[in-house]
């Protein structure tokens, strides 16, 4: 068990380090001079101001030194300061991270609460109309863009029915964005649940359980759904990563005050330190969540510890 | 692929499943809209004030008009060309680069294999839309940069698929025989491996197509992709979103266009994948 944790921690650290280096390098793939690009919209873009910006960002150093310096600073928690306002990037992002996590967890919860039963119904009634209906919902779910679903929900529930507010950050404002994410990603969960269950229902021990005369719901829930849930835990990390990715756009639809909204604002203003910081923080969150789930999985299923 | 298709045809006659039929039908409509848009669009999609502002759907303006009095039907039709064009370019270049990376990983020795696989796995764990978003943030907005960013965002997926197919092929006796005959890796891949995995790779390409179109719409919606007044579907939604109370058609038609296009390629991709991989068919 300790070996598993050590291995996962090392892998997680290596991934985060790789992402930090990558986002350090990204500034240098910008065609042309990044300072010119960043200050293009600024009125104070005198040659002196641009030189000062260049040395502030360390852009007069060789590339490998800049990337190295960025990585060292990032590892000690310093992600630089924003171009606009000169505020520490790490603080701005960490302030908004709880909002992002709140929405992500709510969305994931809805996705699981809808997706697992849907996948269960489809697998148990495999080949019937119910199965086909669930699979139609699943393929629709992966085809509808989250931002459009969000706009439609706003139109119906906020503007037309006036049940819920359009934007903001209190609990009532959480409902629509959380459902937007939940409805989009429940399709993925339903699909995974269904294929896990279909595989398990073909196992010998299910036949044995039925032969022993157990009631059908007992067979399905105790013998089939429980092991299926364990294999769902492994993919929850992946679903979470994709949900966080989709959330970047959804946060902008609902003006939700999370890191995704901050990131897109920075992208539109070409605030490079902020964009780099966002990439690092996003990657770290995803890596930490999937690492914790891996360890949790190791606790639930002793066979995993061997790998 | 063709062998599998052959076998299926014999087993239960030539019957197209409903999802494939629906997917192909929708794709045909979208493709026709894209190719014929300059002939069938009743108005110039970027010309303002061809009608009243925010007019509802009517016989003259099938989808209504937008906040500048532009014809929404013409804009949505022309948007099909933009979306399919971006999707096609991104998929072809992403597939070329990703396929190459996957093949190199499979045939260039242990060390390169280990390093490339690790990198591919790390990148694959990030959503492709987010990779595209991060790249566009540095490259700058615009249709060309968005296409490049989306193409790169598809590389990890295609690299993984190509590696998987190539690694399975690598274990087969004929590859060993070819190696014993003294063929170098480059020629081995070109002459022996590619013809065998090419078809499966193209099948997987259709799966990337739908996510490329979704990414393009998302980027344009945020103002980081195709810029207005170009009638990209995401861009139409972004500029019309302030008027959706008065004119819900600005919300409905471009959104439906995205959904139906993505749906058609998802339906086609899913069933092609089932055909290409009979093992999946049994469990799914």
TrEMBL record, chain A:
SUPFAM superfamilies reported in the protein's UniProt record: MetI-like
CC terms in the record's Gene Ontology section: plasma membrane
Membrane spanning stretches: 101-125, 132-154, 174-190, 220-244, 277-300
UniProt keyword Translocase, yes or no: no
Record's keyword terms, sorted: Cell membrane, Membrane, Transmembrane, Transmembrane helix, Transport
PANTHER family named in the record: DIPEPTIDE TRANSPORT SYSTEM PERMEASE PROTEIN DPPB-RELATED
Protein name per UniProt: Glutathione ABC transporter permease GsiC
Organism from which the protein derives: Mesorhizobium sanjuanii
Species classification: Bacteria, Pseudomonadati, Pseudomonadota, Alphaproteobacteria, Hyphomicrobiales
């Amino acid at each position: 068990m300790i070996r598993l944790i050590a291995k996962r921690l090392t892998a997680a650290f290596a991934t985060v380090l790789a992402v930090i280096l990558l986002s350090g390098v990204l500034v240098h793939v910008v065609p042309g001079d990044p300072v010119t690009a960043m200050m293009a919209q600024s009125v104070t873009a005198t040659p002196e101001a641009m030189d000062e910006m260049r040395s502030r960002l360390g852009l007069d150093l060789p590339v490998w030194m800049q990337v190295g310096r960025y990585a060292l600073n990032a590892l000690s928690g310093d992600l630089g300061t924003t171009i606009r306002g000169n505020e520490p990037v790490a603080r701005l992002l960490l302030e908004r991270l709880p909002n992002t996590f709140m929405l992500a967890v709510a969305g994931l919860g809805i996705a699981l609460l809808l997706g697992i039963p849907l996948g269960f119904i489809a697998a148990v009634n495999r080949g019937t109309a119910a199965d086909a209906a669930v699979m139609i919902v699943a393929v629709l779910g992966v085809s509808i863009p989250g931002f459009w679903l969000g706009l439609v929900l706003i139109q119906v529930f906020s503007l037309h029915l006036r049940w819920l507010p359009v934007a903001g950050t209190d609990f009532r404002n959480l409902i629509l964005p959380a459902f937007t994410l939940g409805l989009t990603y429940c399709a993925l969960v339903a699909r995974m649940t269904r294929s896990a269950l279909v595989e398990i229902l073909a196992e010998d021990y299910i036949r044995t359980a039925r032969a022993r005369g157990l009631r059908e719901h007992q067979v399905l829930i105790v013998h089939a759904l429980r092991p299926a849930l364990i294999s769902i835990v492994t993919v929850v990390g992946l679903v979470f990563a994709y949900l966080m990715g989709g959330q970047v756009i959804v946060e902008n639809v609902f003006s939700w005050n999370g890191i995704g909204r901050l990131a897109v604002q920075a992208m539109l203003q070409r605030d490079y330190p902020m964009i780099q910081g966002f990439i690092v923080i996003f990657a770290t969150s995803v890596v930490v969540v999937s690492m914790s789930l891996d360890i949790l999985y190791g606790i639930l299923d002793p066979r995993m510890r061997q790998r | 692929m063709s062998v599998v298709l052959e076998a299926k045809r014999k087993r239960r006659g030539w019957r197209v499943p409903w999802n494939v039929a629906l997917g192909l039908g929708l794709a045909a409509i979208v493709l026709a809209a894209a190719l014929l848009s300059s002939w069938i669009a009743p108005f110039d999609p970027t010309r303002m004030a061809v009608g009243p502002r925010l007019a509802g759907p009517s016989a003259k303006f099938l989808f209504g008009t937008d906040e500048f009095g532009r014809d929404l039907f013409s804009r949505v039709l022309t948007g099909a060309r933009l979306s399919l064009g971006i999707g096609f370019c991104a998929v072809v270049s992403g597939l070329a680069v990703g396929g190459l990376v996957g093949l190199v990983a499979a045939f260039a020795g242990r060390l390169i294999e280990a390093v490339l696989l690790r990198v591919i796995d790390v990148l694959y764990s990030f959503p492709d839309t987010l990779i595209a978003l991060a790249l566009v943030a540095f490259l700058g907005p615009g249709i060309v940069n968005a296409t490049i960013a989306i193409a790169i965002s598809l590389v990890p997926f295609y690299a993984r698929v190509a590696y998987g197919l190539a690694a399975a092929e690598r274990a087969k006796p004929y590859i060993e025989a070819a190696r014993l005959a003294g063929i170098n890796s480059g020629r081995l891949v070109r002459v022996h491996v590619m013809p065998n995995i090419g078809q499966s790779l193209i099948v997987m390409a259709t799966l990337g197509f739908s996510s490329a179109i979704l990414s393009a719409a998302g980027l344009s919606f945020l103002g980081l992709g195709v810029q207005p007044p170009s009638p990209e579907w995401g861009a139409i939604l972004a500029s019309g979103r302030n008027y959706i109370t008065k004119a819900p058609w600005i919300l409905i038609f471009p959104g439906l266009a995205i959904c139906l296009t993505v749906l058609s390629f998802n339906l086609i991709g899913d069933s092609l994948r089932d055909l290409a991989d009979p093992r999946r068919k049994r469990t799914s």
